[in-house]
Design brief:
There is one protein chain. The protein contains three helices and four strands. Strand 2 and strand 3 form a beta hairpin. Helix 1 runs antiparallel to helix 3.
């Protein structure tokens, strides 16, 4: 399993907008992409992270070429939610597990 972490700083005072974007746009997008097993969003007072879990490297590589992903990222950039640089880290899972339902 491959873990992809996309991080960016967000505009001050806009975290509620970013949470809504994650819920309304990012989560359905990742759910629709072949090979995406799960996605989680985290944030602190400066940085947003989209953490996705993928079946294999081929699935991860297909994301950057997906027209749907490219369009969604363009919408996100034009929304004014992002400030600073965006970073992507790709890592191989070393194990772990889900231990029951998550309290969302």
């Amino acid at each position: 399993m491959i873990v992809r972490v996309w991080s960016t700083t967000y505009a001050p005072g806009r975290i509620e907008d970013f949470i809504a974007f994650g819920r309304d746009r990012l989560e359905p997008l990742f759910h629709s992409l072949d090979g995406c097993l799960a996605c989680f969003f985290t944030y602190d007072d400066q940085e947003w992270r989209t953490i996705t879990f993928w079946r294999d490297q081929k699935s991860v590589e297909a994301v950057k070429d997906s027209p749907v992903y490219t369009a969604m990222l363009a919408d996100l950039v034009s929304s004014g939610l992002l400030v600073g640089t965006q970073k992507v880290r790709i890592m191989t899972s070393g194990g772990g597990g889900l231990y029951g339902p998550l309290p969302f």
